[in-house]
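Researcher: Please translate sequence to structure tokens.
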Amino acid sequence: MVKETLNAPYSHYLLDAGLSQDIDRKTIDEMGIDGFTLMEVAGSSAAKHLLRDYPKLNHGIFLCGKGNNAGDALVVARYLVQHNIKVTLVFLSGTDDLSPDAQKNFELLRKFSPKNKLTIFEHWNDFQEGSDFDFIVDGMLGTGLDSDVRGDYKKAVAWANEQPQSVFAMDIPTGLHANSGKILGCAIEAYRTFAFGGRKTGFYLNDGPDQTGTITYCELPFPNQYKNHCETYLLDENWVSTTSPKLGEHKYDSGVLYIIAGSEGLTGAAIMAAQSAWAEGLGAVILVCPRGVLSVYEHNLPSIIKKSVGSRDDFCFKEEHVEKLLEIVAEKQGKILLGPGLGRDASTIAFVEQFLSQNTSDTVIDADGLWCLAQLSEWNKPDKSQWIVTPHPGELQRLIDKEISDDEDRLKKVRKFATKYKITVLSKGMPGIVGTPSGKCYLTNYNTHYFARAGSGDVLAGKVSAYFAFDHDAGQSCAMGLLCGKQKLEQYLLDHKEIPEPRDFI
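Model: Translation complete:
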């Protein structure tokens, strides 16, 4: 198996509820770091962020359940009252049966707090909110929640979401499923979420991005070896470089990409992909197209090398073009992008089947190339060829011949698909997901809805293929393409007010 070079730092591991609880338990039982200490580290970390980033805080409403999520909030409250910030505690389930560590922190808070800085309501119905508070802390329900929020918790969530003041969530917003990112009946709309010991997978799936606000990772003394069962990670330019290599002495020393694309009426896709790849600084981009559409590219792509197959009457790829195409891609060692504007003619499906079964070069398969691939009953992929497939959700469903119900389901199916066929999958959507042959998956953490426009996929395919041609491995190439899009989007939104066109990302 080809070595995968993506190596996320532990701060970017995405944990599900089971792994989070397992790490916590092992740290306590096997390492002897008790739960009270872990709670102290978590709460003090969140408190330090609040004190540093919001120096004018005056009075907070702390919504508390009875478990360790409440304990984290109580630690935060203890630190804040020491800085003359008033705290109002509202217990949703009373104070009679708090978890042992939460109970201990409740007692400590009362010892630490001046009487004029701490107000306690034992039940939700006793709560009189007043109007002088300027923030809310959510310490109600944590990662163990797996059923709908009910009763007074539901009332408290509704109340908090109606307030203009910012809500700070401890570890996870109450009501958000830690694995799926789905709302369980109702959920806190946090302004900021402090993730203790690990970011949760659900932060980035389904409803998660709308509920978590800004996510701040707070490190806990969890041994790294307990995290090694993690298989999902967050892509971030802090640890994934998007810098292209320096130019070589000769054009063919700086990366060669063959783009096999184009058919009558669909020439624009190849133009976008070629321009996108060329912009990354490749030594040579070689567009191979049917002879009948060559004149379009001669006019629009002066910097791109053009080669054609077939006769002037050929406006799409056909099975008889395979032999000539294999000769062309053997001329210079490089990577291949197959698919933009390829068309869906029956003869093109046969062409794709034969070419992919005989081609041993590493290949990115996009757009109509994926459609053709999905029409085949079986794939004959040469062992020497690495494949990257770049489906949007509809294309992914066709490839796996199964419906996808939500983002969590898409993540699971991408992982299974990539490992089954030993390929790399860049699943376009919100979030973008990169699945690798080893089973590891990587998620984006930005709004990719801006890319849901015709042409954006061609631009992304060009970027990914360019990085692949620079000899980055498949997973790294996909990650770099996604993060390059993020950087260009952020810069565009700084400079303009209108929605960007796909060409703006080239």
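Researcher: Any highlights?
Model: Residues 251-505 form a domain with the UDP-N-acetylmuramoyl-L-alanine:D-glutamate ligase fold (CATH 3.40.1190.20).
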